[in-house]
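pinned: reference chain
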Amino acid sequence: MKISLAKSAGFCFGVKRAIEIALNAAKSHKNVYMLGDIVHNEAVSEKMAQAGIKKAKRLLPGKDRVFLIPAHGIPLSMIKKARLLGYGIIDATCPMVKQIHTIARKMENRGCRIIIIGDHKHDEVQGIKGYLRSKAIVIESLRNIPAKKIQKIKKACVVAQSTQDVQRALQIITKLKQYIPDLKSSDTICSATKIRQEEITRMPLENDLMIIIGSRNSANTKRLYEISKSLNKKSYWINSESEIKNNWFKNVKKAGIAAGASTPQAAIQDIVNHISEINP
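pinned: its structure tokens
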């Protein structure tokens, strides 16, 4: 069986940078706190805990405490609250995500209603919303465009969650143009996401089976799986080698492997090694 590994598999720049900042913070400070996870991956979260970074449900006042902002960012109000409580701030927000914050605020100042294409409950989307004075409209798919609300808007700017499906975002923007006379859009889907999506539109057609590696709460991994599944029904989303079933590989001559931007290289290699030992 031939195994093909996507060139893009593994940490993207933003994830690598965030993990490095977090581990350096843990070395320099005793009391480092986060709300949520530095990135959406269980193995990485465990590594953060082992380094001594504490995950809190809410921030409490205390001396010599540091608040670590995760890769996907947080609402501005939370940063202000941390400062008021006396925390030092260490910002590991991905530069691409920070750019979305900047674009959204600038266009809001120019009188645009901000529309975000993304997953409503995702931390990155909540962070973008939290940098705006007015309430943003979040659209997840063509099916949930709030037509009645959109029709009342005369001027708007669209930004997308950095890990969104490129084609889905374009379809939504095209639809919005039918409702809003003055619609501007910014290409805020990051290059790492685009590279992964380009590979995942090709690999499922070149292989008998696809394995997508990543956490269940990873938005970009979910997107890769959705695209792969639409092109090849024998696409499987796993987070560890223990989830692999040998019967998936019956009559499989070519297997492709892709991974989300927050999937550790060690996990990818373990799965590659495991699959290479399967005799279909």
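why pinned: DSSP finds eleven helices and twelve strands in the chain. The domain at 2-10+192-276 is CATH 3.40.1010.20 (Cobalt-precorrin-4 Transmethylase; domain 1).
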